[in-house]
Design goal:
This protein has about 100 residues and is of the alpha/beta class. The protein contains four helices and five strands; from the N terminus they run E-H-E-H-E-H-E-E-H. About 30% of the residues are buried.
Length: about 100
């Protein structure tokens, strides 16, 4: 299950030595609702290898602002605390899995 990421716990996950993936979304966003189940599936499939979470942009403006999130869904991929890759807009599960695999290699 994807974790709930907030302004207050984001840096804790970012500083972990485990790769970190964050889906920036909002309740009112249609494409976010389409990609949500894919993010949940990936969180289950990569459990223990990658930390995957979801951040509601309406409730967490600090981190959303820090990374310049202007369009949602946006998924950021971090490795060793550094931004590694990103996906703006909806994407197929295979494309997101490929980005996660790149994090792990």
């Amino acid at each position: 299950m994807a974790l709930v990421i907030t302004d207050s716990n984001f840096d804790e996950f970012l500083q972990s030595n485990k790769p970190f993936v964050v889906d920036f979304w909002a309740e009112w966003c249609g494409p976010c609702k389409m990609i949500g189940p894919i993010v949940e599936d990936l969180a289950h499939e990569y459990e223990g290898k990658v930390t995957i979470g979801k951040m509601d942009v309406d409730d967490n403006s600090e981190i959303t602002s820090r990374y310049g999130i202007r369009n949602i869904p946006t998924i950021l991929f971090f490795n060793n605390g550094q931004l590694f890759d990103k996906q703006v807009g909806a994407a197929q599960k295979s494309a997101l899995a490929q980005k996660i695999e790149a994090l792990l290699s």
